[in-house]
Amino acid sequence: MTASEKQDRPLGGTWSRRGVLAGLLGAPVLMLAACTDDKKGSTPNAAGSGPAGGSASPSPSPSPKVSVAKITVTPADGTTDAPFTKPVTVTVTDGILGSVTLTDAKGKQIPGQLGPYGTSWTSTQPLSSGTSYTLAAAATDKDKLEADANAKFATASPANTFVGYFTPEDGSTVGVGMPVSINFNKPITDRAAVQQAITVTAEPGVEIVGHWFSSTRLDFRPETYWAKGTKVTIQLRLKDVQGAKGVFGTQSKDVGFTIGRSQTSVADLKADTLTVTTDGQVSATYPVIGGGPDHRTWGGKLVISEQYKETRMNSGTVGLGSEYDIPDVPHAQRLTTSGTFIHGNYWSPDSQFGNDNTSHGCISLKDVKGAGDPSTNAAKFYASSMIGDVVEVINSGDKRVDPANGLNGWNMTWAEWKAGSAI
């Protein structure tokens, strides 16, 4: 070892050129690592920024402003039995409503109206029972910040309901005397509300008025018989109409019928003849038997309401005990609810037709048992007739039929008929 090598040797340790070189090369590596750490983690403080020897703290983000407007919807979101008789309401506090949209399950929009200060909204069209609805509302507060509300709810179905059974049948062709007759399955106390929910129109147009015969029956007719070919439409809008306390309608439908040829008949029970007029021309005259002295036939205009090729007639059903029971009366057409028919007769002798009145109130034409001969007077009249035709009975010796006994409202004057309207 040379003298110079001895001088370079550190005290208390071993010396090595390799060690010196390693020490010299190690310094830049440490410096590089320090720069790398600064870039990844922290940045040296700029002059005058932050505390000495530390890093700057990030400034907190300002909280977003929230509208103070509060929207309330009635019925509330999630309601499953909302009353359909009450409107939907939307109110806002600390703000003004900007928009409200209410739609049913089919997407139909329900109209409504804003209150005078824009703080409320009320639906203006009745809701339907058993129906789902969706509502969206928006409002702004004094700072023009917007709030919104969404609600889904469903209305309840009524516990008690009523329906109207209408005559004639939808799509039928009927005679010129056919009224629209609606029979309700429950008594109606709010007749005006129910009548307003039923519209009857005709083409060609004519005035049509409703008449209440009772709390369960409402008929409609024009002043005079329908013109042949008239098309009549009935619009029933009874759904959710309150006919009596707590009793609501269920129907919303359109039905209609057509008036066929014009045919009316006159049964003169003094002459014992039935004269048929079709489209203004006498088309047939038949000898008949009318009601006897103890059972006169009702007078007036009687409308054919039912037709049976054969039917049973039993005196017990009309309060006459056991006077008769005929199981196969041919070509029978009903004229009153109480049991008056114009029908075929195979049991009376030929000499009585056109000469004697011996029936229990019905009008009969000559016929055969079994209703199988189309050439008999009864068969021919039956074939030429339809429901809604009018048979006017004159000289019967009895009073005019009760207009409510069958479809016989034509036995009232127009003034009497209109007096029975609720609107």
Automatic annotation (TrEMBL):
Source taxon at top rank: Bacteria
KW Cell cycle (keyword) present: no
Record's signal peptide: none
Region (Disordered): 37-67
Family matches, as InterPro entries: Big_10, LD-transpeptidase, LD_TPept_cat_dom, Transpep_catalytic_dom
Residues at the active site: H343 (proton donor/acceptor), C362 (nucleophile)
UniProt keyword NAD, yes or no: no
Chain intervals with Low complexity compositional bias: 46-58
Keyword list, A-Z: Acyltransferase, Cell shape, Cell wall biogenesis/degradation, Peptidoglycan synthesis, Transferase
Domain L,D-TPase catalytic: 263-394
Pathway of action: Cell wall biogenesis; peptidoglycan biosynthesis
Any Pfam family hit: YkuD
Protein name stated in the entry: Ig-like domain-containing protein
Annotated organism of origin: Kitasatospora cinereorecta
